[in-house]
Amino acid sequence: MSTYTNEQVAHLVEGTLDWETTFRMLSMPKDNSRFKQYVEALQKKVSFKDRIVLPLGPHLYIVQTDRKQWVTKCDCGHEFCDYRENWKMHAHIYVRDTEEAMTEVYPKLMAPDTQWQVYREYYCPSCGALHDVEAPTPWYPVIHDFEPDIEAFYKEWVNLPVPERAA
Amino acid sequence: MNMMTPNETGFADLLKNGQTLKQFRDGIIERTQKTGHYNGLEKLELRDADPIGYEKLFSKLRGGLVHARETAKKIAASPIVEQEGELCFTLYNAVGDCVLTSTGIIIHVGTMGAAIKYMIENNWEANPGINPGDMFTNNDCSIGNVHPCDIATIVPIFWEDRLIGWVGGVTHVIDTGAVTPGSMSTGQTQRFGDGYMITCRKTGVNDTPLRDWLHESQRSVRTPKYWILDEKTRIAGCHMIRELVEEVIRADGIEAYEKFAYEVIEEGRRGLQSRIKAMTLPGKYRKVSFVDVPYKHEDVQVSNAFAKLDSIMHSPCEMTIKGDGKWRLDFEGASRWGWHTFNAHQVAFTSGIWVMMCQTLVPTQRINDGAYFATEFRLPKGTWCNPDDRRTGHAYAWHFLVSGWAALWRGLSQAYFSRGYLEEVNAGNANTSNWLQGGGINQDGEIHAVNSFEASSCGTGACAVKDGLNHAAAIWNPEGDMGDIEIWEMAEPLLYMGRNVKANSGGYGKYRGGCGFETLRMVWNAQDWTMFFMGNGFMNSDWGLMGGYPSATGYRFEAHKTGLERRIANGESLPLGGDIDPSAPTYEHNIDATAQVKRDKQCMTTEDCYANHDLYLNYLRGGPGFGDPIDREPAAIEKDLNERFLLPEYAGKVYGAVFSQDAKGTYTVDAAKTRARRAEMRKERLARAVPVREWMKEERERILNKHASTAVQHMFATSFALSEKFTKQFKDFWNLPADWMVSEDELGVPSYGSKHRMDLSLMPDVTTVVQVEE
Ligand SMILES: [Zn+2]
Fold first, then answer.
1. With contact defined as beta carbons under 8 Å apart, do B535 and B552 qualify?
2. Strand-strand pairing, B375-378 and B327-330
3. Nearest CA to CA, how far is B669 from chain A (Å)?
4. Which residues of chain B make contact with A25, given a CB cutoff of 8 A?
5. Exposure of A130 in the CB half-sphere (CA atoms within 13 A)
6. What does each of the 167 residues of chain A score in pLDDT, given as a tens digit?
7. What is the Cα–Cα distance from B505 to B219, expressed in whole angstroms?
8. What is the pLDDT of residues B565-578, one digit of tens each?
9. Are strands B494-501 and B517-523 parallel, antiparallel or unpaired?
10. Contacts of residue B687 in chain A, CB cutoff 8 Å?
11. CA–CA separation, B113 vs B126, rounded Å?
């Protein structure tokens, strides 16, 4: 099994890792220590003090607050909700549901017909980061994408102590 | 005197153990279910006793399969096989479970296995009999084939008069004699128009194809020369592999070979489970994708009024990764099959998925049916991915399949991202279209059909550390290749007026999706020529990931009465290169003003007439993007601008880039000004956005008032009719009154198939093979 230095993992996070090492990561069996190194690299990047429990997106994390609660949080510090809830329900949304709004982002004919499909852009209410773009039909429920089993992951998959969580 | 031969009926004892193939297979299924290990193999005796010998066996067989594919490929004349590599060979054990497969379109791991299982379950050993030297041919989509143009030749392997396995070879042929030409045509709406259909038919004895088969099959398709060379390719490959197996048995012994043929499947099962544990994260993932089926338009000419409606394929997927590394893929809520050619058999789904997984989760040579045994599939009966009617058409099942799987990329990529394996993240795949197809009399004066495989080089999805690849791949063929212009011009009476990267086709993001490409083709030296379009247009099946945008949708451009014959003779200006900006098109300025042009989003059409010097734009789609576009490096935007992969207008609007262009046309992005502009963009975003719960109130009103297009309502109606669970989730989410409902009846569109259906299993003397939860 290959292993990588903390510096290499930090470069991976920044998108600045050399291709040779990236290629090795792709082609060799996975390094089980990656998760720990990854979270450490991210922890150094974020401005908040809360402990990262699980990264969800480039600017989105499940963190442990000082009250030991697990919440979904933007890297600007904005707290969305309890980690078990769908953070999108607490976001701000802009729906591209007209041809005019679609042609703001794609040339004529290269975007969907809004009678069939719309783009829903979910922003952080504080910093305006675009956390997700859904592309469903009108009427489609807001999708709760991901419900991780964090306890099983820490305990059984990466052999790390589960961060404390207030009931 | 008509004496009946005794060898047509009765117990064949092919296994020389007193069991029929079905009894033997039932035993394996029972042992697998009871122990959770394939064939009850809790221990891998051969591998544990002699790991090196086991690996040697593996390498010999796998090497032989790959070699047979490479050699056999050269026999084919069809560019689809010879240039694109649309062929694959697979080795099975006696019950049709896949031991090992070659490279290529490995979806057929399961499809040929399903055909073997169909023969087993329906007692082929008694009638028509299974003997050394036999050949069976199958392309029947109602028993597991993906689409009729994938023709499989299946050869039993015997050792000392005992059946020990099977080898199958499949090629994607250019034409199957469907209602319209091309291998994946749109003109038919049912199986009965899908073309020549062969159900595990015995087509050869003593290693020789039967003459009735040769005569009948060649005249049943439009392209007999390619057809027969494709068949020779398959037969040659199968026989090479059969010899290889004999050679291996002579060297290593029959006992070792047979142990291997079962242990390797259990090893494959364990392999997938440990791979899932090594790369992903336990939990529930929910993703969805859609495909537009715009059949109402006048350019979709079908023979049934009941097929003339706009509908939408709905493919919601709940992926559950369990603590022990097993996983479950549940498509509850999927929409019903339809009167078109995009329906998929359950095996096309469960088998096809590995062609995608070998590009991400299991990028190894060790793909076999073990992966199937490590996966729980739930494909509700009656949906597009498990039809409950024997009339369904399947000619381009891939159209729905690849879109359904796009959701899986995103689910897996969420896992990779959260776990830190950023290098594995892929926002999804491109909708692998357009498909240029058609036929008529070609440049050699022969009846011909074309099916351009340029679609095997679409853009790939963005990764979390880099852009997707431009015009590089197709999800259904990991070794896809766009093919040489010179070869296509020999195979098709269509000259290239341009072939270049399609600007803005890749989805935007911090890392953008790979761009697709576009080729402008001019009909030349053909007679009575037809073509049609097939791809996405009104909708996009490929969402972006984590703030990235979906890739661009398709559109069509075709032109008739262009005046190009005269314009070429007179040296006037010509339409050349790409349709760079469809908002300000230039092709129209370089053909006669009186030309008939179709430029719209109707990317699904049926066979239409083309004269020489008519034009057809083949636009191959891009991949979806990853991450917020305003996080994209200014240098990357600058590069895209200078390579003409991105129109300047959108560098500003989407990426917030502030840039200038020098006298030579070179763009420079100003990093500081871009940073300032992006800060403004964040404010603009928040100014136009509303809290989700507020928007939901408005959307709920629209649902209560049934304010949505008929196509959208029709999609929900078919999903509601098949799934109480989905209906409940929908109504709960929007907090709808108990009596709120949408049904097909109220929509004023044809609803054939909504109430009355008949499954293949209801036909006399037919046992279907069910391999999923329904
Ligand atoms: Zn924020």
1. no
2. parallel
3. 19
4. 421, 423
5. 33
6. 689 999 999 999 999 999 999 999 999 999 999 999 999 999 999 999 999 999 999 999 999 999 999 999 999 999 999 999 999 999 999 999 999 999 999 999 999 999 999 999 999 999 999 999 999 999 999 999 999 999 999 999 999 999 999 97
7. 41
8. 999 999 999 999 99
9. antiparallel
10. none
11. 19
Specify the pLDDT at position B451. 86
Interface touch A108/B582, C-beta < 8 Å: yes
First-to-last CA distance in chain B? 51
pTM over 0.90: yes
Place of tokens 């096309």: B348
Question: What are the residues whose beta carbons fall under 8 Å from the beta carbon of B369, sequence distance 6 or more?
Answer: B38, B97, B98, B109, B110, B113, B265, B268
More confident residue, B389 or B181: B389
Q: How far apart are CA B87 and CA A73, in angstroms?
A: 49
| pLDDT score recorded for residue B366 | 76
pLDDT mean across residues, chain B: 94
Closest-approach residue (CA) in chain B for A90:
B692
Question: What number is the ipTM of this complex?
Answer: 0.99
CA of B407 to the centre of ligand 1 (A): 26
Beta-carbon count within 10 A of B434 CB: 30
Q: What share of chain B is helix, strand, coil (3-state, %, to 5)?
A: 35, 20, 45
Which residues between 242 and 271 in chain B have a beta carbon less than 8 angstroms from any beta carbon of chain A? none
**Chain position carrying tokens 């999903």:** B719
Flag if B682 and A157 touch (Cβ within 8 Å). no
Tell me if chain A has a CB within 8 Å of the CB of B355: no
Cα–Cα distance measured from residue B750 to residue B274, given in angstroms and rounded to the nearest whole number: 48
User: Closest partner residue to A89 among B538, B631, B693, by Cβ?
Assistant: B693
Go through chain B and tell me how many residues it has.
Answer: 774
Main-chain dihedrals φ then ψ at residue A90, nearest 5 degrees: -110, 10
Query: What is the spatial distance between Cα B502 and Cα B519, in angstroms, rounded to a whole number?
Result: 9
Cβ within 8 Å of A, B 664-683: 681-683
Question: Which residues in chain A are contacts of B581 at CB distance < 8 A?
Answer: 107
Q: What is the pLDDT of residues B398-420, one digit of tens each?
A: 999 999 988 999 999 999 999 99
Dist. CA B184–CA B193, nearest whole Å: 11
Residue of A nearest to B698 (CA): A139
Nearest to B292 by CA among B607, B64, B542: B542
Helix (H, G, I), strand (E, B) or coil at B30: helix
Q: Does B533 touch chain A (CB under 8 A)?
A: no
Give the per-residue pLDDT at B614: 98
- 3-state secondary structure at position B588: helix
Residues whose CB is less than 8 angstroms from the CB of residue B3 and which lie 6 or more positions away in sequence, other chains included: none
A38, A104, A117: residue with CB nearest B539 = A117
Q: What backbone torsions phi and psi does residue B218 show, to the nearest 5 degrees?
A: -70, -35
Residue found under tokens 């969580």: A165
Residue pLDDT, tens place only, B344-384: 999 999 888 888 888 888 877 777 888 889 999 999 999 99
* pLDDT value, residue B531: 97
Closest-CA distance, A64 to chain B, in angstroms, reads: 16
B524 touches chain A (CB under 8 A): no
CA A95/CA B118 separation, integer angstroms: 49
pLDDT level of residue B103 (50, 70, 90 thresholds): confident
